[in-house]
Amino acid sequence: MESMSTTGSAAYRALLLSLLSPGSGGEFPPVTCVVADGIMLFAIDIAEELGVPALAFRTASANSFSAYLAVPRLLELGETPLPVDDPVHGVPGMEGFLRRRDLPRLAPAADGHPTESAAAAGVHPLLLTMAKGIADCGRARALVLNTAASLEGSAVAHISPHMRDVFAIGPLHAMSSSVPGPAASLWREDDGCVAWLDGHADRSVVYVSLGSLTHIWHHEFTEFLLGLLATGYPFLWVLRPDMVGAAEEAALRGAVGDGSKVRVVEWAPQRDVLRHRAVGCFLTHSGWNSTMESILEGVPMVCWPFFADQHINSRFVHAVWRAGLDMKDVCDRSTVTSMVTEAMESSEIRQSVQALAQRVKRDVATGGSSDAEFKRLVGFIAELSATPRHQAQTPVITNGDGRHQE
């Protein structure tokens, strides 16, 4: 992050300058608006400095964004992220169910636990930096969130007063499903796993994927493997090449057998897997994309969050949306077995997540909230882009007496 804001910002400024004059961009017209990842605030600041209006786009959940905004209040109350069940009162709209273990945390240390200093302080300096970056998104002309009103309308409402404008236009993968494009991941997908699913009964397979960043340790791998085997259900497990070592690979080879009950792949076409009739539940790290993809397909989840927004996402899956079970801070074979079995067999969880799926599908359908917000965003960008550059870089601030000043 530090390197991007120094070395990266210089290259970005040069690129943007080269694209501002007619004809300088080759086949492209001059840049009239920038949409930047919200963690790259330098991209927003430089664009505005050059007279180009800029929007911030955040890929995490609105609920986690709201929690980061509340970090100063949480520190005042002493409600810092720790793996304990003490209730949290400092995040607006979440007072009734949020616990300290549900607050955004950084990745654990090598032994799987917080460092002694971090545990004592309850907060890491980088967490404070991230919280400040979240608040500073208010410098952009608007904040764009990949979410839907039926999922996070309350959080969006709490965020809005802190931003100049907010657009909730997701789930984006559902809104763009008819538009062909490249794969969403740089990992090579194993398409053969879909054919493997074809050979299994409806809702009989457990899909396991902990995302593109999570690393698991040997004891965690062992507990997951033995817990999954004890369920008796076949399972499809995504294990990236950088995720496990030689000992784990040997254990997997012994577990796979003839491949009829266990299929292990380095990466899977997740959307195709989740919509497959054979998949009965999703053991997930609760990344926001995975969470929305599972909800949209009506697949119950067992959540094992790792860091950042995943802890809040998993709490909402369990305690608010009733779309699955939250297994955070626990990794033993008996818990894996019991929670996966419950997610596979609970008609209540399945009905709840399928009802939620229908609400989200209405959001992205023509006339739905996300559809309307997307059209409003297009109009917003068109209006910004029509403003001359020398006007775009001059913010207008309203004084308390109603007068305006530049």
In total, the number of strands is 12
Distance between the termini: 32 Å
Low-confidence stretches: 109-121, 391-406
Biggest sheet character: 6 strands, parallel
Average predicted confidence as pLDDT: 86
Alpha carbon gyration radius: 23 Å
* CATH uppermost class of the domain at 192-362: Alpha Beta
Percent helix range: 40-55%
- What is the count of helical runs? 18
Give the CATH topology of the domain at 192-362.
Answer: Rossmann fold
Helix-strand pattern: HEHEHHHHEHEHHEHEHEHEHEHEHHHHEE
CATH architecture descriptor text of the domain at 192-362: 3-Layer(aba) Sandwich
CATH superfamily of the domain at 192-362: Glycogen Phosphorylase B
Question: What portion of the residues fall into strands of 2 or more residues?
Answer: 5-15%
Q: Which structural class should the secondary elements be placed in?
A: alpha/beta
- The strand line-up of the biggest sheet is 7-6-5-8-9-10
Multimerization status: single chain
What are the defining features of this structure?
406 residues; alpha/beta; Rossmann fold; six-stranded parallel beta sheet; four-stranded parallel beta sheet; 18 helices; 12 strands; 45% helix; 11% strand; globular; disordered C terminus; signal; transferase; glycosyltransferase; UDP_glucos_trans
